[in-house]
From TrEMBL, chain A:
<dbReference type="InterPro" id="IPR015943">
    <property type="entry name" value="WD40/YVTN_repeat-like_dom_sf"/>
</dbReference>
<keyword id="KW-0732">Signal</keyword>
<protein>
    <recommendedName>
        <fullName>YncE family protein</fullName>
    </recommendedName>
</protein>
<dbReference type="InterPro" id="IPR031815">
    <property type="entry name" value="DUF5074"/>
</dbReference>
<dbReference type="Pfam" id="PF16819">
    <property type="entry name" value="DUF5074"/>
</dbReference>
<dbReference type="InterPro" id="IPR051200">
    <property type="entry name" value="Host-pathogen_enzymatic-act"/>
</dbReference>
<feature type="signal peptide">
    <location>
        <begin position="1"/>
        <end position="23"/>
    </location>
</feature>
<dbReference type="InterPro" id="IPR011964">
    <property type="entry name" value="YVTN_b-propeller_repeat"/>
</dbReference>
UniProtKB/TrEMBL annotation, chain B:
<dbReference type="InterPro" id="IPR000531">
    <property type="entry name" value="Beta-barrel_TonB"/>
</dbReference>
<keyword id="KW-0813">Transport</keyword>
<keyword id="KW-0812">Transmembrane</keyword>
<keyword id="KW-0732">Signal</keyword>
<dbReference type="InterPro" id="IPR037066">
    <property type="entry name" value="Plug_dom_sf"/>
</dbReference>
<dbReference type="Pfam" id="PF07715">
    <property type="entry name" value="Plug"/>
</dbReference>
<feature type="domain" description="TonB-dependent receptor-like beta-barrel">
    <location>
        <begin position="208"/>
        <end position="607"/>
    </location>
</feature>
<protein>
    <submittedName>
        <fullName>TonB-dependent receptor</fullName>
    </submittedName>
</protein>
<keyword id="KW-0798">TonB box</keyword>
Amino acid sequence: MHLPSFLQRCASALAFGSLLLFTACDPDNEPDPVSEGRFTNVYVVNEGAYGTPNGSVSLYDKVSGKITSLNVFKAANGREMLADVAQSMTIAGDRGYIVANNNSKIVVVSLPDFKSVDTIKSTLSQPRYLVAASTDKAYVSEWIQVPYPSAVAGRVAVVDLKTNKVTKTVAVGRLPEEMLLVNGHLFVTNSGDNTVTVINTSTDAVETTLTVGANPASLVQGSDGRVWVLSNGDTDYTTPANSTKGSVSDFAPTAPYTVRRRDLNFTAGYGSRIRRNAKGTVFYLKTAEGVFRMAPTDASLPVTPFLKRNFYGLDVDPDSDVIYTGVALSYNGPGRMVTYQTGGLPLDSAEVGILPNGFAFY
Amino acid sequence: MLGLLGPAQAALAQQAAFIDSVRVLPAVRVEVERPRRFAVGTRVLTLDSAALASYRTATLADALAARTPLYLKNYGPGQLSSITMRGTSAQHTAVLWNGFNVMLPTLGQNDFALLPVSGATQVEVQPGPASALYGSGAIGGTVLLSSPVRWAQGLRGAAQADAGSFGLRAGSVEAGFSNTRLALRTSATYRTATNDFPYDEPGGARLRQTNAAFWQGSLAQDIAWRVGKAGQIQAAAWLTKADRHIQPAIGTQNDNARQLDQNSRLLLGYEHTTARHESSVRVAWFEDILNYRTNTFQSNSRVQTTQAQVSHTVRFSQATSLRVGAEAQHFAVRMTDYGGFVSENRFAGFALLRYDPTARLRLSATLRQAVLPGRRPPFTPVLGAEWQALATAQHELLLKASAARGYRAPTLNERYYQPGGDPNLQPETSQGYETGLTHNWHGPAHPALKLQTELTGYQQWIDNWVMWWPKPGQSFVSPRNLRQVRTQGLEASSGLRWHNKVSSMQARAAYAYTRAFKTRDAVESVVPTRRQLVYVPLHSAALSLDGTHRAWQAGSTLTFTGYRYTEDAGTNFLPSYLLLDAYVGYTWRQKAPAGAALTLLAQGRNLTNQSYQSYLYRAQPLRSAQLSLRVAWR
C-alpha cells in the first residue's frame, strides 16, 4: 500500500500547487474611489440580471465626464448590495433609497459617501418606486403577488424615513408604477389598469380614481401645472391587430381633475416613460419607437421621434437639462450610458452595469 | 480511458479484465459496427461501469464533473447542470441515447442533472464537431449513452441504499440476465434530498438554503434478442422523472419556483448482420414534459418526438466499410408559450466511410445533409485520419487529425416561442480542425504497468451563433443570428494503471485549456473584444486516483475549475475553485451462495470545505458525506 499513498500525496501536492498557480491567474478586482462632493454626482441605476442579485449603481462624475465607480455600493461598503432588479433610486436630503424590486427591499445609503445606513425590508412586497414627501415620510409603490393566475394587485406603502418602517398601506390598482406628489395629492399610475389613484397625503387615504389611457406607468407635472401621464398601451403578441396604442393623458392637479386623453399612433410598450426638463416646458416620451419630444402647449402629440433609438432608461438632469440615457447591450452584461444635449446631439458615452434603467442626480 | 476500477467492483478483482472487453460475442457472430468506428482521428473519453460505480444513484452531472475536466454550470445540488465543451454553449453538445438525440427539443439542450447514471452502462464523451455522425448540435462535442450487450452472463442483480448529508437518500435495484440469445437489463434508481445546507452570504451571515429539495427517479429496461442466425432485436425504455424546487439565487426572494420534468424514451430496433452486409431499422418515441411554476407564473410544455433511422452497411473487405442511411424526426408540441399546438418534421441523409489502407493507417470520411422546414443547413462532412507512427513491444505512438463541419438546427423555442420566435432563423454552423497524438506504454508484466498519454489541439469557428435580443423597433426579444465565435484549445490527459495479485491502482490526470471569444457581434454598439466567453473556464483539470487492496477499495478525485467571467462583457468573474472528493469501502464476499457480496462504502465530498459558486449566486454545499450499502450477486 506504499505506492498508492505515495502517489496520492504527490497528486495532492501537485493539485494544491496548481491551485496557487491558477488562482494567481484570476483577474484582479480593484476597488474604485467614492465621491466626496456633491452637485456633480450622477447615480446610474443598473437593474442587473433578473433573478440574480447583481443590480448595481454606477457613479458618473459630471466634471470629469467619467464613470468613477462601476459599482459604487461595493466600493463604499466592501460588499455587494444584493439587489435583484434595482428598479429605481430616489434621493431625499442626504439619503439615497435604492429600490430592489425582485427581492423586496430598499437599500438606504448616506450621500455622498454611499455608506449603507439601513435596509427597509419588512412587509415590503416587490417595491417599484419611492417618492419622498419630506425627509421624514415617503410613499412606495408595490406589487402584491397573488397565487397564479390571478393578476398582481397593487399597494402603496407609507414609510417613516426616521425609523425606516412601513406605517400604513393603501390599496391601489394593479401593477402600480411611478408616482407624483403635487399639492398634497399623490398620483399613482396603475399600469395593470387604465387608472391613476389619487391619495390625499394628509389622511393617506384614497380620494378618487381617475381613468386615463391603458397601462399608465409614468407621469410628470408640466409648466402649465397639469399632470401629464404616459400610458404604455399593450402589445398582443399572438394577434398584433388587437394591440392597444399608447396614449398621453393630462389633468389638473386638483378636483375635479377632468382628464383629457389623446392616443399615440403606436404602442409605446413596457418600460416607456415621460420625463421633463427643469422648467417643465419640454417633455420627453421614451418609447419602443424612440424618444419623442413635445411641449405641454403643443396642439397635437408628436409623430416623429426626436431620437430614433431604443433606450432602456432615460432621465433629464435638472441642473443642465442634459438628457441621460441608458442603453442595454445584453441581459447579462454591461450596458452603456449616453448623454445628449437638449438639441439631441450626443455628448458622452460610458460603460455602466447590466441594464441601465434610470439616473439620480446629487 | 477512464476505465477506472470502481469501488464496488474492485473487490471482484478478477472481473477487471472482463470490464475492459464488454462486447464479448461468440466467434460465429459478426459485431454490429457502432458509429464511433467512423470517427477516426477524434478523441473519446469512456466512463465505463467501473468508473461510474461511485455514481450509481447519482446523475451524469455528478459523474462528469468529478471524473473529467468538463465544466458543468451547476445551479446547486440536483439543480440545472448545463455543459460547455470546447468553449461552446449548452446547445452545442449533443446527447445521444442508443444513437438517438435526447435533447429537450424546446430548449435544444440537456440538463445533465436529469440524466441518472443508471440509464446506461457506458458513457462516452467525444469532444469536437461531429454533426455528420451525430446530427444537429454536435459542435462542441457529443455525449453518447449506451448499454453494450453482455451475452452469456447468467442471472445477476444488486440492490443499494444510500444516505447522506442534507437529507440525501437514494436507492437502486438492478437485475440482469443473459444467455447466448437473450439479454435483459433492468435498473431502477431514486434520489431525494432536502438540501437545507448552510452557505455563506457574500460579506454576510451563514444562512441555510431554502427551496432546493428534489426527488428524482429513473427506470431503465434494455432487451436484446437474437433472432435466427443474423438478426437481432433491440428494445429499450428509459423513464425518468424529477420534481425539483428551484434553488433561488443567494440574496433573492424565494418565489417557490418548482419544476416537474418527466421524460419517457422508448426504442425498438432490428439489425441484420452478415459477414458483408449489415442492415438496421430503428424507431424511437420520446415524450418530454416540463412544467414550471412560481407564485406568479406558470409554463407547461409537452413534446412528443418520433424518430426513425435506417441504415445499410457494406463491408467490402476487412479494410473498407461503407454505411448509408437516413433519419426522420417528427416533433409535436403542446406548450403554453407557443399559443397551442405546433408540429414539425426534419430529415437527414448520411454516408459513412471507413477505409484502412494499411495496417498502420486508418481513414474515415462521413457526410450528412439535413433538411429542415424552410431552411437547409450546410452539407456537414467530417474527415479523419490516424497513423500508427511507432509500434514496439512497449511503445505505441498514434498520430491523429480530423476536420469537420457542424451545425445546430434552430430549437422549437427559437422557431415558435411567442413573442419573438423566428421561423426563418438560420441554423448555426461551425467548422473545426483538431490534431493530436496518443502514446501507450506497456511496462513489465510483473507488476503490470500501463501508461497512456494523449494530447490534442483544436480550433473551431462557429457562425450564426444565436442570441435572444430585440430586433430593431421591437420591445421583446427574438432569437437572432448575431455572433461569430472562435474557440481553440489544448486537451492533455495521462492515465496510469498498475496491478498485482492482491492490489490494483489507477491514476489519471486530465487538463484542458479552452480559449473562446467573439469575433463578431451584430448588436448595435457592441464592439467584440477578445475577452473570454462567459462561463468558459480558461483552465480546468481533473485528477483521480483509485485503488484496491484485497477487500478494501479507496480513491479520490480532485477537480480544478478556473475563473469564469459571469457577464457578456466587462471584468466580473467567479473565482477558481478546487474540489476534493474521496471514498473508502470494504467488501465482504460470501462463499455460498456463490458470488454474493456486501459492500459498505463511505464517500466525502468537498473535503476542503470550499465555499464556492459554479454559477453566479447559486450556493453550493460545504463538506458533505454519504454512506452506501450494496448487496450484489452474480
